[in-house]
Design brief:
Layout: H1 7-30, H2 41-66, H3 72-86, H4 89-106, H5 113-127, H6 136-148, H7 157-178, H8 180-185, H9 190-207, E1 247-254, H10 260-268, E2 271-279, E3 282-289, H11 292-302, E4 304-312, H12 313-325, E5 334-341, H13 343-351, E6 355-359, H14 367-377, E7 381-385, H15 392-404, E8 408-411, H16 417-425, H17 433-445, E9 448-454, E10 459-461, E11 464-466, E12 471-475, E13 478-483, H18 486-498, E14 504-509, H19 517-528, E15 533-538, E16 546-550
Parallel strand pairs: 5-6, 5-7, 7-8, 14-15
Antiparallel strand pairs: 1-3, 1-4, 2-3, 9-12, 9-16, 10-11, 12-13, 14-16
Length: about 550
């Protein structure tokens, strides 16, 4: 059966796009020089797609509860709506309109991506008050043109999506020649870079293949020169464009379609970077202005604005600087935020002084939930411990949000709760922040981690084929051992890890761990590995009978 875009593919697209943007987020933030060098394009696009992905997941969860399967139309509309209400910044708002444009075509029953991509590009251009070439708009148009060039009427979804992706890559490589600020900085357009990641995820989703890999080698590289600054300048704020508006105003707007034309004209006269996207009574409004009150008043005249967010570019820049350098001369108020699975682990981390985000089975926290925990810590300096490799991207986006609010955040990439425990054990809030972060990072990095899990189905692993019910021993994230029971597999894992040396073993028992598991493993370490201490915690984590750490 040829590749096609169906409901599961839409869900896969959202998830793959979120992963791709998570990997590229810092890179995209770093090359963000247009229209304002506020260093948040990658974060904004990640948050926009995260909102879309959550909306699609909610559709699947609702149908799973009733034992039915969602249809393509409901998934597409949920994706577009989620992106619309969660859109952040100029780039996120345009991306939301691109997704809406595709939905308008595909939800009608047409499986052809070519008119969908064309409609997406057209609607994005219409949403921007003054389109500029060399931006993500150009990349979107090139993707649509490349897709249309697949003239074979029988071309499947993967062939069209792949053509669009390749067309977008070529257009992205050309953006520095189209926009002087990009050429001067030696970078490609940040929004276009994010869009290429989203289109690559689309092709991967409909094909089921592995991600397509890095961008073409010809793409310009090098550090971004903030827009409006010259090398060796006098230290003026690089995030404020000389002569440009000082505030970003964003809000959702409940308003009839007939009121939007007047709103656009009113806001266009107040500032720049105007983007108004949406339809069917719900709109997302983004504009840069000096008169914040007038921008909000324009929304009130058109309908009902809500979820209003106002950012002063100078404050945002200073927030970035405080996030990178700290606030010298001010008393440090520091906190640790830890993400954990299991009531026992939550209590352990809370006892150590951390602000805890307790993860429910199958419900990993979104970046917004992590960012809220950072705010709840009410600290100028925060150490963030994700304790799960799959949460690294969401934690990174949350940390970036907090930095724009003036919080200095250090993200220590702990991959397991045992690494988080090791980091918390050396945490000392009275020493300098940088020294504390170095000590905690070193402790986490010196802790090898493993876990025992029970296979649910037959599958291929790094250690061979496992059957349902087999016990899997994962070391540093990879399946290293396939065993018959928890005790024997745990002993094998411990022996393999301790063969490289170690002074302390940490055992964290899951909710379903047998009563004698810890005792038998502890006895084995005591008898077979002299001078190695063992500490045992009741973690209470679901679906993982045992976590192991070796320091």
């Amino acid at each position: 059966m040829p590749p096609t875009l169906d409901a599961p593919a839409v869900r896969a697209w959202c998830r793959l796009a979120l992963q791709a943007l998570g990997r590229a987020r810092e890179e995209i933030d770093a090359i963000n020089v247009y229209p304002v060098a506020d260093g948040d394009t990658g974060t904004n696009m990640y948050l926009t797609v995260e909102s879309a992905a959550q909306a699609v997941d909610a559709v699947f969860d609702g149908h799973a509860a009733s034992g039915t399967e969602p249809d393509l139309s409901s998934c597409l509309h949920s994706m577009a709506h989620g992106a619309l209400i969660g859109a952040r910044g100029n780039s996120g708002t345009i991306l939301a309109q691109l997704l809406r444009g595709m939905t308008e075509v595909l939800a009608s029953g047409s499986g052809d991506l070519r008119p969908a991509l064309r409609r997406a590009a057209e609607s994005a251009y219409q949403a921007v008050a003054h389109p500029v070439e060399g931006t993500m708009l150009t990349v979107a148009a090139a993707a649509a043109e490349a897709a249309a060039a697949t003239a074979d009427a029988a071309a499947d979804a993967w062939a069209v999506a792949r053509a669009a992706y390749e067309g977008a890559r070529r257009a992205l490589a050309a953006t520095p020649a189209q926009l002087d600020v990009l050429g001067n900085a030696g970078v490609v357009d940040a929004g276009g870079r994010g869009l290429v990641a989203v289109l690559g995820a689309l092709a991967d989703a409909v094909s089921g293949q592995a991600p397509m890999g890095p961008l073409v080698d010809a793409l310009p590289k090098g550090p971004a020169l903030p827009f409006g600054c010259a090398p060796g300048g006098d230290g003026d704020d690089p995030h404020v464009v000389p002569g440009g508006p000082g505030f970003e105003v964003v809000y959702l707007l409940d308003a009839p379609d007939t009121a939007v034309g007047g709103l656009r004209r009113r806001l266009d006269g107040l500032g720049d970077s105007l983007v108004v996207v949406g339809g069917d009574g719900l709109w997302n409004v983004h504009v840069h202005v000096d008169d914040v009150g007038a921008a909000i008043e324009a929304g009130i005249e058109a309908g009902r604005p809500h979820r209003i967010k106002v950012t002063h570019f100078g404050d945002q820049a200073r927030g970035h600087e405080r996030g990178r350098r700290g606030q010298r001369g001010e008393p440090a108020l520091r906190a640790v935020v830890a993400v954990v699975r299991g009531d026992g682990l939550a209590a352990l981390c809370a006892e150590a002084g951390a602000v805890v985000i307790a993860v429910r089975p199958g419900e990993p926290p979104a970046s917004g939930e992590i960012a809220e925990a950072i705010r709840r810590a009410y600290a100028r300096e925060v150490v963030l411990l994700p304790n799960d490799v799959e949460l690294r991207d969401a934690a990174g986006a949350a940390a970036e949000q907090a930095r724009t609010e003036g919080v200095r955040v250090a993200l220590i990439p702990t991959r397991s709760a045992v690494q988080g425990i090791a980091a918390l054990a050396v945490h000392e809030p009275t020493r300098r922040f940088d020294e504390d972060v170095v000590a905690m990072t070193s402790a986490a990095g010196a802790t090898r981690y493993a876990e025992l899990a029970v296979a649910e189905t037959q599958s291929w692993t790094m250690a061979g084929v496992c059957q349902a019910g087999d016990v899997l021993g994962l070391i540093d994230g990879d399946v290293a051992i396939i065993g018959g029971n928890l005790v024997e597999t745990g002993i094998t894992v411990l022996d393999r890890m301790l063969a490289a040396g170690g002074e302390m073993v940490t055992l964290v028992l899951g909710a379903g761990a047998p009563a004698d598991l810890a005792g038998r493993l502890e006895a084995h370490v005591r008898e077979g590995h002299l001078a190695v201490d063992t500490v045992v915690y009741a973690g209470g984590q679901e679906r993982c009978p045992l976590l192991i750490g070796v320091e």
